Give the backbone structure.
Amino acid sequence: MSGIRKFAKAIGLSSIGMTFLKIGLAAVLMWYVISQIETRDRLVEIPPDDGPPVVLAYGDLQGEWQEGGEWQFQPEDESQPPVRSQDLKPNQEPRPGFFTLLAGLRVGFYAAAIGFWMVLLSVVTWRWQILLRAAGVTTGYFNAMRLCFIGYFFNNAMPGLTGGDLVRAVLVTRGLESNRTKAAMSVIVDRLIGLFSLVLLAGLVLAFGDIQGADGQEIRHLDTVAQGVFLFLLAAVIGGCVYLSRRIRRWVRLDKILGILPAKGAISKLDDAVTVYRSHPGAVLTALVLSLILQACGVMSFWAVGKALGAELEVAHDFVIFPVVQTISSIPLTPPAGWGVGETLYGKFFEWFGSAFTLGVAVSVLFRLTTQMGFGLVGGLVWVLSREKKQGMKLAEMKDNGETETSE
């Protein structure tokens, strides 16, 4: 039984109740996001004390307003003269509305974002194939990519950004007579290594990078974010060492503890499926290096989407923002694909780093539509044409298989 369903059972919620809870959470978050989005173009003044921008006028922003181009702002009150880029005071700046941001899309940067994401998907498949091989399961590169794309499709219908992993874990075990649990758990290990490397990127930038806001201003809540990142990495390293080290396991009597737990047979199979990787340090190290590469591609894809919409955040900023938001959005208790959660967080982070909430939401929406929905639709086509679909395999059957997998 999945962790979400156990949680629901513990608090007395049925699966239908949990579904409505997630839908309600998504609705509340989306309402908050929409209420914070500014659809109108505006001219703002930035207070010297780094307070919230003061709106001087609403109007129509036209021209090349991205990165120092020539533009003109016509206030709604036509009695006021238009403001041109060369007339702007040092503490003033134009803030395009949500739809102006989308209409001003720069195709070159957007194409670069798609290219970075395609590289990421290629390396993700390679990483998983290496972990499968270490678990004693051999599969071709294109079959692994096929299963990954099917997982991307189901990510859009299941909780968090990782819901499709359940589907991928079940599909990879079909037709196997041995190592089924190890094959399924390779998906979890693959995800954990990816998550660790993503946060590690943020940690490296925070530790060794000079992270500053616009004009050298201090970034709000950066210390809190850094503490959270470093605590996560510390907990992950300590937890991994405790779990995988034979000496530490004996010292804390972990095997004895696992042996007295309910369903100890299933737990033992899961434990064996994970600890098999301590005998393959080369595969794990290779997977970690590949993860750093592909996660960097993910950050660059997000940065390029931001540049396509006129964002002026530095690359180093996105190496902090993207890992933190994506990690939180991947929690299975969040709505499907993390919708609502991601938009709220990206909007807030953009504000903290000296940009605008609306711009953060616009970047998040376009990024998700491209990488999650766009490539997810490709995964949907792969699923429709797959042999599993043709054999009548339903998602409900996958859930049932996923619950009984560890008992085989």
